[in-house]
């Protein structure tokens, strides 16, 4: 009897260890701007510049990613005030709009009211976050932040006072950064670091599942990996830099031919970027190989009829092959089809964003400084 109790309590403990936050796949900024008929105008004024986010200038950058669509709900304060946020492994700060914000983007989003929280404390520093198309400015403060049933005490976060125009077209209210403290604006301790130091997670691991089909099923899991979301083994790849979740990429191949990242390059696994982004010349080469032509906005257009016959693209990471088929890298939007390979300018850094993560369940191990990838279930 005693033996069974021990086994049973171990199983209960295991299931209690995973804290799951469902992610909603909402409408993207691109979709809502297209519906309003102002996408072309917006695109001319705000060219897609995904690398702005990774420009290390001390302020915390974040790009105008028009295709981001996965949001989860957290709450801040006592009693809790709820916000939808992008769980972003490519940045490190948490911020939400505040009642002190007058920008258009704050008018159609939830706003935090410090006067309604008994656990709120103002910080003593301003915060500035640089975007691809303007910036978010505000103030630092601290309060209790609740994420997936985990209450993090004294979490420092940003309250926006002004926000870039494109934020008005985003469904999420704010951003929750999951990268390392070394790139946090004002050296703020990130939410996940506090979860670890406050003993709130059983393992210093979180993982991300992005469901490919519907609005349902995607989630972030804190405290481990959820075996129901992947098949086969997890392949572990050591980080080459604990700033972003950055790893070594050996090559990108199509039909056995190296088409990009010849001789190796650096790649970031980033839930806060929707596409797979690389240097212009490499991306142009991949798009040419798969039969795409680039339009005036930098979108790589393909004939929707051709998806079945387009080749797989294989990313070699840590000596292992991760293949992304055309069904995963082509997006259909209002009858138009485009590839998920985006130009990152002259930067040699690659971003493996949502297009890649939908194919491969991603496990982020902060202590061992490694990323695990497995086939999404």
TrEMBL record:
Molecular function, one GO term: aspartic-type endopeptidase activity
> Where in this chain does the record put each Peptidase A1 domain?
70-374
Task: Report the sequence similarity comment from the record.
Answer: Belongs to the peptidase A1 family.
Please report a single Pfam family linked to this protein.
Answer: Asp
Gene3D superfamilies given for it?
A: 2.60.40.1960, 6.10.140.60, Acid Proteases
* Span of the signal peptide: 1-17
UniProt protein name = pepsin A
Coiled-coil features, chain-numbered ranges? none
EC numbers listed for it are 3.4.23.1
Enumerate the active-site residues. 88, 270
The top EC class is: hydrolase
Signal found in the keyword field: yes
InterPro entries on file:
Aspartic_peptidase_A1 (IPR001461), Aspartic_peptidase_AS (IPR001969), Aspartic_peptidase_N (IPR012848), PEPTIDASE_A1 (IPR033121), Peptidase_aspartic_dom_sf (IPR021109)
Q: List the cysteine pairs that form cystine.
A: 101-106, 261-265, 304-337
Q: What does this protein do?
A: Shows particularly broad specificity; although bonds involving phenylalanine and leucine are preferred, many others are also cleaved to some extent.
Give the matching SUPFAM superfamilies.
Acid proteases (SSF50630)
Q: Does the keyword Signal apply?
A: yes
UniProt lineage = Eukaryota, Metazoa, Chordata, Craniata, Vertebrata
Q: Which UniProt keywords apply?
A: Aspartyl protease, Digestion, Disulfide bond, Hydrolase, Protease, Signal
User: What's a GO biological-process term for it?
Assistant: proteolysis
């Amino acid at each position: 009897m005693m033996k069974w109790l021990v086994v049973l309590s171990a199983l209960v403990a295991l299931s209690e260890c995973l804290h799951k936050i469902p992610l909603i796949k909402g409408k993207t900024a691109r979709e809502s701007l297209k519906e309003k008929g102002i996408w072309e105008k917006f695109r001319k004024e705000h060219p897609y510049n995904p690398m702005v986010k990774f420009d290390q200038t001390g302020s915390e950058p974040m790009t105008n990613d028009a295709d981001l669509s996965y949001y989860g709900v957290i709450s801040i304060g006592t009693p809790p005030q709820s916000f939808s946020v992008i769980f972003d492994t490519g940045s490190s700060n948490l911020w939400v709009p505040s009642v002190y914000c007058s920008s258009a983007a704050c008018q159609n989003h939830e706003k935090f009211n410090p006067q309604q929280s008994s656990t709120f404390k103002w910080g003593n520093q301003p915060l500035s976050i640089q975007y691809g198309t303007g910036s978010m400015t505000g103030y630092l403060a601290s309060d209790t932040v609740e994420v997936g049933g985990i209450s993090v005490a004294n979490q420092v976060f940003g309250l926006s006072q002004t926000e870039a125009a494109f934020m008005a077209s985003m469904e999420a209210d704010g951003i929750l950064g999951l990268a390392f403290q070394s790139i946090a604006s004002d050296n703020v301790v990130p939410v996940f670091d506090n979860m670890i130091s406050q003993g709130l997670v059983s393992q210093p691991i979180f993982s991300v599942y992005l469901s490919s089909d519907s609005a349902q099923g995607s989630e972030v899991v804190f405290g481990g990996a959820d075996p129901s979301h992947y098949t086969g083994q997890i392949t572990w790849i050591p980080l080459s830099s604990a700033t972003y979740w950055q790893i070594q990429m050996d090559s990108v191949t199509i039909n056995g031919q190296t088409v990009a990242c010849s001789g190796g390059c650096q790649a970031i696994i980033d839930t806060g970027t929707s596409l797979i982004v690389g240097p212009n010349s490499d991306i142009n080469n991949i798009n040419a190989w798969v039969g795409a032509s680039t339009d005036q906005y930098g979108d790589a257009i393909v004939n929707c009829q051709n998806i079945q016959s387009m080749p797989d693209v294989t990313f070699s990471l840590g000596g292992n092959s991760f293949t992304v088929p055309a069904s995963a890298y082509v997006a259909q939007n209002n009858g138009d089809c485009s590839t998920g390979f985006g130009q990152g300018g002259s930067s040699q850094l690659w971003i493996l964003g949502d297009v890649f993560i939908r194919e491969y369940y991603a496990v982020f191990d902060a202590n061992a400084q490694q990323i695990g990838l497995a086939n999404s279930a």
